[in-house]
Amino acid sequence: MNTTLAIVLALVAVAAVFGAVVYAQRRRSHQMRAHYGSEYIAAVDELGDRRKAEAELKAREKRVERLEVRPLEAEEADR
Predict the structure, then answer these.
(1) Looking at residue 73, what DSSP letter applies?
(2) Is 67 helix (H, G, I), strand (E, B) or coil?
(3) For residue range 1-45, what is the model confidence (pLDDT) as tens digits?
(4) How far apart are CA 15 and CA 77, in angstroms?
(5) Structurally, how many domains does the chain consist of?
(6) How do residues 63-75 score in pLDDT, each as one tens digit?
(7) Most buried among 28, 30, 53, 57, by the most CB within 10 A?
């Protein structure tokens, strides 16, 4: 009886972990789709895979974060 209970508990734990992982992936995908909009769809179409597209968009985001983006001075804007 103890072995059966341990097996059932282990299966429940595995199912819970699997469910949590699937939920987290769907949530992240939904957030990225909402944030990037048509760029997300274009990346998925271009790369043919949701995971690859999300990785590419994250890489782009990191690349942009490293750039030193600043507002133009009035003289620069006039040019």
Answers:
(1) P
(2) coil
(3) 689 999 999 999 999 999 999 999 999 999 999 999 999 999 999
(4) 58
(5) 1
(6) 999 998 889 888 8
(7) 53
pLDDT at position 1: 63
Domain that holds residue 71: 2-78
Residues 6+ apart with CB under 8 A from 68: none
How far is Cα 78 from Cα 60, in angstroms, rounded to an integer? 30
Q: CA separation (Å) from 21 to 8, 16, 31, 51, 59?
A: 20, 9, 15, 14, 22
Q: SS3 of 28, please? A: helix
Using the structure block, give the residue that is written with the tokens 């429940």: 12
Six-digit token pair at 66? 């490293």
Q: For the chain, what's the residue count? A: 79
